[in-house]
TrEMBL record:
Annotated GO MF terms: actin binding
Highest taxon in the source lineage: Eukaryota
Keywords from the UniProt entry: Actin-binding, Repeat
Protein name: SPTB2 protein
Keyword Repeat in annotation: yes
Organism: Pterocles burchelli
Keyword Repeat part of the UniProt annotation: yes
Length: 330
């Protein structure tokens, strides 16, 4: 049993052999106590004085032989345990490598099936999932590094043929490198999609603001007197300041578009969208200037009316005074 060359063909078989070997070691340990007791009893016969049933040298030789055999058995047991533990280390290495390959295949399928989302919300969801996967990738990388280190240790012991170990390590390293490249590429595509949808969302927000502002600046309400027109003019000046503040955002659209990935920035729809925003901003700015001029004109008219009214009142007062004036006779 102890000189057997059967070291198992997979991890479960090695574990089974180790369990059986443990039972054998326990049996040897039990027999060791028995042999030592028998040897001690036998040696007493070599120490008898007077009548001796057997030659003391024969007894000593026999005791020494049995003790030597027992020691050899112990050495064989230790050697076989070491071989079985080395075999377990080898098959544990292969199993961990197979698990790593299975994990890599699973992630490759996930990455192959993944899209980059259809809108900002879906891209953000996919980005969060990808971040979780990057965390898994980091943990698996650390485990794989430990397994590779154990593989190097097995090779250093030179107990097994290096061919299968080196080939397996090479295959897994290549697949891992490819997985990291695919992961990096998918992350880049997600970032490009995120940039595109954020750009689209910001553009939509800018269009909505310009449309609301256009409705405000194109209003035909110019007030009905000096006070109301002044209030409208103050509000309009605030709107004009906001329009001017948004000028930089509109001018930056072209630069932002140029930073997008080619597949996104070369789309006809997004290019048309940028042109529409620029045109809409130009209309808003132009109408805002006109409205400000119209409000100032209206204010001038209402102020003229106010001054005319004041003149009329003064003239009426003077007319009444002149009509009521009594010219003295002297």
């Amino acid at each position: 049993l102890l000189v057997s060359k059967d070291l198992g063909k997979h991890l479960l078989e090695v574990e089974d052999l180790l369990q059986k070997h443990g039972l054998l070691e326990a049996d040897i340990s039990a027999q060791t106590e028995r042999v030592q007791a028998l040897n001690a009893a036998a040696l007493k016969f070599s120490e008898l004085e007077g009548y001796q049933p057997c030659d003391p040298q024969i007894i000593c030789n026999r005791v020494n032989h049995v003790q030597t055999c027992l020691e050899e058995l112990g050495e064989l047991a230790g050697k076989r345990r070491k071989e079985l533990e080395d075999s377990r280390q080898l098959w544990t290495f292969f199993q961990e490598m197979e698990e790593a390959e299975a994990w890599i295949r699973e992630k490759e399928k996930i990455l192959a099936a993944k899209t980059c989302g259809r809108d900002l919300s879906s891209v953000l969801t996919l980005t969060n999932k990808h971040k979780s996967m990057l965390g898994e990738l980091g943990n698996r990388r650390a485990l794989l590094h430990q397994t590779m280190k154990r593989g190097e240790q097995i090779l250093a012991k030179k107990r097994f043929s290096p061919g299968g170990i080196q080939e397996k390590m090479r295959e897994v390293r290549l697949r891992w490198k490819k997985l990291e490249e695919v992961t990096g590429l998918h992350q880049q595509r997600l970032q490009e999609a995120l940039n595109f949808f954020q750009f689209s969302a910001e553009t939509d927000d800018l269009v909505a603001w310009l449309q609301d502002t256009y409705r405000i600046v194109s209003s035909d309400d110019f007030g009905h007197d000096d006070y109301s027109t002044q209030a409208l003019l103050r509000k309009h000046r605030v709107v004009v300041e906001e329009v001017e503040k948004h000028r930089a955002a509109v001018l930056a659209l072209r630069k932002q578009l140029a930073l997008l990935a080619p597949e996104h920035r070369q789309g006809v729809d997004i290019q048309i969208r940028v042109v529409e925003v620029e045109q809409l901003y130009g209309e808003v700015a132009e109408v805002a200037v006109l409205r400000q001029q119209w409000l100032q004109d209206a204010l001038a008219v209402y102020r003229m009316f106010s001054e005319v009214h004041a003149c009329e009142v003064w003239v009426d007062e003077k007319e009444q005074w002149l009509e009521k004036m009594e010219v003295p006779e002297e």
